[in-house]
Amino acid sequence: MYKILIVDDEYDHRKGLMNLLLTLQLNSLIFEASDGMDAIDIIDIMDCDIVITDIKMENIDGLQLLKIIKEKKPEIEVVILSGYGQFEYAKRALKYGAADYLMKPVDKAEIKNIINNIINKLDEKKEEKCKRKTLSSQLNRTMPVYIDHLMNTLVRKKEFPQKNQLKELFPLEKRGYVFLCNIEMNHNQYHAEVSQIEIRQEMKKCLDPFSSYSFFLENQQTVLVVCVLADSMIEQEKCDEIRKHLLRNFAAEISFFIGKITNNLYEEASDSFEEAYELYQYYFYELGWCLYYRNLKNKIEGPIDNYFSDISQIIESVKHFDIYNSYRQFELLINKKIDGSLPLPSVLKQMVIYALFQITREFEIMLSQDSRRIINNKIHEIPGLKTISLLRQYLYLFFVYLVGELEKQKDSNNTEILKHCKKYLENHFMDEISLELMAEKYFFNASYFSTLFKNYFHKPFSEYLIELRMVKAKELLQDTNEKIRKIAPLVGYKDTNYFVRSFKRYSGFTPEEYRKLNCRIE
Fold first, then answer.
1. Are 158 and 265 a contacting pair, CB within 8 Å?
2. Within a 13 Å sphere around the CA of 125, how many CA atoms are in the beta-carbon half?
3. How many CA atoms lie within 13 A of 328 on its CB side?
C-alpha cells in the first residue's frame, strides 16, 4: 500500500482530485496539503511515496517543493500539475526530477495511467530490494530454498524465465488447485522455523494419496501455500480433519482459503492462487476459518464507495468530549459500509485512516505537538490490524486518547489556542465573525471565552476586532485609490454608512477626511 499526498492551495481542485483518485481504487492511502509548507510538514511526519503538486502556489510553489522533496527524500516520486500556459514550468519540473506532469483539467484515464506507471515502478524497486535482501540472507542457495522460490514465482506469475525447471522437477501439467493455510504460531523465531518444516511434512501426510507441494509465501511467513494435483478441491470436512491434526501437534491458530480447480496447474496456478489470496485478505472480516471463493464471490465483488459519508456528527461528539458516541457513530459508518458487499480490507482501512486524519486535523490547534505525533503514529498502525474486531477495539482506544488529550489541553493551557485565535482573526477579520462563533470554533462556552480573551489581549473581543478592521481600513485609505464603498466590505462591513460611522468613532475623522490628511498615493 502506497501513500499519495495531494498539494494544491485551491480547495475545490484539491478535493476534486482526491475524489477522483479514490474512484480509481488504487489501494493507496491518500492525504492532502493546502500549500507547500503544509506538504513539507506532512512529508517530515510520514513516508509518502507519491506527491502530486500544483505548480502555482503561494509561499512555496510546485518547483520549489519538488527541489525540497528531492533534497530531503529523493525516493519520493513527484507529479506536477500545470495549467494552460505553464508548459515551460512542467518541462523544468521534469529536468529537476519530476516523474511526470499533468495538464489541468485532469483527465481520469491519464492520471490513472501515470499513477499506475509510478506504482509499477515502485513495486519493481520494492521487489528488487526484497529479492536482494532474500538472496543476501541465503548464503548457501540450497535446492529446497531455490525450489520454494520458483514455486512462489509460479503462483504469482504466469510466465518467468525459470518456469521450465519446475516442469522437470514436478508433474504439474495436470488438474489441480491452490489453497492457503494461515498459521499463527506462538513460538520464538528459532522454533517457528523448525515448526515450518514439520508443518509442511504433516500437511503432505494429511493430503496423501494426492500429490501436493507446500511452501511458505515469501515475505509472509505465516502463510503456507499448498499446490494439490487432484480432480476436485478439498472439502470442509477434510480441512477440519487437517486443522485438528495440526492443532494437536502445533500451538497455532489455523485457517484455510481455497482457490478454484484448474485444468493445468502448471499453466493456471496463478489464477487459483489469486482467488485463494483474495480470500486470505477477507479473513479480516472474521467470516470463518475455512473459506471458498465460490461462496463469497458475490459478497466481495459488489460496487464499493471508497469514502465514508458525513463525519460531522463524530466531530461534534468529540467537541463535546463524548468518547462513547464518537466511537459508536464511527462504528455505525463501518457497519453501513460492510452491510452487503464487503470492501477489500485494505480499502476499508484506508477509509478509516482518511476519516481519522480529517477528524484529527479538525482539532489540530487544540493538541500539543507530542499529542499530534502520537495520534499520527496510532493512525499509521491501522494497516497492520489483522481483524475487524481489533480495528474496532483500536478505534475505541483512539477516541479515548484523542478526547483525553483535548480535555487535558483545554484545562491546562490556553495560550496556544489564543495565539492561534490571534492569527485566525488577522487572516479573517473581513469575514462575518462573532464572539459566539469563535468560542464554538475553539470548543469554549461563549462567556468563558470572552473572559479568557479579555485577560489575554487586555481588551474585549469586539474592541479587538474593530481595531483590526480599522488598522486595515487606514492602510487601504492611505495606499490605494479604492472607493469607500469598496473598502468597507474588504474590512468586514457590508453597510458602507455603518463603516463610515464606525471609522469616525474610532479615528475622529471620516474616511475621506482621513485619506486627505494621510494620503500616500503618488
1. no
2. 11
3. 6
pTM for the whole thing? 0.56
Contact predicate 167/151, CB 8 Å: no
Residue 186's pLDDT is 62
The rounded distance, in Å, linking the Cα atoms of 278 and 288 is 14
SS3 188: coil
Instruction: Give backbone dihedrals phi and psi of 509, rounded to 5 degrees, phi first.
Output: -130, 155
**Average pLDDT, integer, range 407-428:** 77
456: nearest Cα among 497, 434, 425: 425
β-bridge pairing 252-258 and 176-185: antiparallel
* Alpha-carbon separation of residue 418 from 135, 306, 324 (angstroms): 57, 37, 29
Q: Show the cell assigned to 83.
A: 495549467
Beta carbons within 8 Å of 362's beta carbon, 6+ residues apart? 315, 318
Pairing of strands 50-54, 211-216: unpaired
Q: Which residues have a Cβ under 8 Å from the Cβ of 515 and sit 6 or more positions away?
A: 477, 478
Closest CA to 403 of 431, 433, 362: 362
C-alpha cell at 275: 482467488
Query: Helix count (H) and strand count (E) of the chain?
Result: 23, 10
C-alpha cell at 36: 507547500
The per-residue pLDDT for range 72-102, each reduced to its tens digit, is 888 899 998 887 666 676 677 777 888 888 8
pLDDT in tens, 232-265: 989 999 999 988 888 888 877 889 999 999 999 9
- % helix / strand / coil in the chain, to the nearest 5? 60, 10, 25
Query: What cell was used for 244?
Result: 485438528
- The pLDDT-based confidence of 522 (bands split at 50, 70, 90) is very low
CA dist., res. 89 & res. 82, Å (int): 8
> Within a 13 Å sphere around the CA of 444, how many CA atoms are in the beta-carbon half?
22
* DSSP state string for 433-475: --HHHHHHHTT--HHHHHHHHHHHHSS-HHHHHHHHHHHHHHH
Name residue 180's beta-bridge partners.
Answer: 225, 257
Q: Which residue has the cell 522455523?
A: 193
CB atoms within 10 A of CB 421: 23
Q: Do 172 and 229 contact (CB within 8 A), yes or no? A: yes
**Do residues 361 and 337 touch, judged by C-beta distance below 8 A?**
no
How is residue 199 written as a grid cell?
508443518
